[in-house]
Each structure stands twice: as structure tokens, then as C-alpha cells.
Design goal:
Mean pLDDT: 74
Distance between the termini: 43 Å
Largest sheet: 2 strands, antiparallel
Strand content: 15-25%
Shape: rod-shaped
Number of domains: 2
Radius of gyration: 22 Å
């Protein structure tokens, strides 16, 4: 998940925020008046949706790392869905005999 950055309104330094986005683009999230402190000059200011951005190049991050994170989230979501479906189908229930219904 790419971390979102803002630019300090006083000194112009770009700094990280505790916000991140899983999918590129605004997904209907509106941020209004989030108070953040510049890590360089210490100025506190309010920031809104239009102030947040993903930098073109983040030092120390590999290109395409967002794709891997999104792929991991998709894999995790699919695994959870499959486990839920197995539970509903009765595959997750161990009978008193101690053997799995799949072994029959």
C-alpha cells in the first residue's frame, strides 16, 4: 500500500503521512482538516484530500512494490473466502470419529 505524502505549506518539504491507499486514485474517501506536523520545520497545519499525493519515486522502495502488496491482499482475501466456503460446506467440522469428511 503506497504511503501518501503532503507538502508543507510553510517550507515546501514533502513528508509522509499516516495515510495510505490500496488502489490508485481517490476511492471516494474525503479528508477534511487533518492536522499534520511537518517533520522538518515542525509547523502544524490542516490538510484536505487535494493535498495528498503519492510521489513518483519513493526512496528505498522497489518499483512495482504496490502491485505485489495488492496481489498479497487479493490472495489473502481469496484464502479467507475459500475457508469460509469450506466451513459452510461442513469441511471445517471434525466429526466425533476424528476423521475429516474429505477423507471418505
Amino acid at each position: 500500500m503506497p504511503t501518501l505524502f503532503v507538502e508543507c505549506k510553510k517550507c515546501g518539504t514533502e513528508f509522509t503521512t499516516p495515510m495510505g491507499e490500496t488502489n490508485p486514485g481517490s476511492s471516494g474517501v474525503i479528508i477534511t482538516g487533518l492536522r499534520l506536523r511537518c517533520q522538518k520545520c515542525g509547523t502544524e497545519d490542516d490538510y484536505s484530500t487535494a493535498d495528498f499525493h503519492v510521489p513518483k519515486s519513493v526512496p528505498g522502495s522497489a518499483p512495482g512494490s504496490g502491485d505485489k502488496a495488492e496481489e498479497d491482499l487479493t490472495t489473502e482475501r481469496n484464502a479467507k473466502q475459500e475457508a469460509a466456503q469450506e466451513k459452510f460446506a461442513g469441511f471445517g467440522i471434525v466429526p466425533p470419529e476424528g476423521r475429516s469428511p474429505r477423507d471418505s
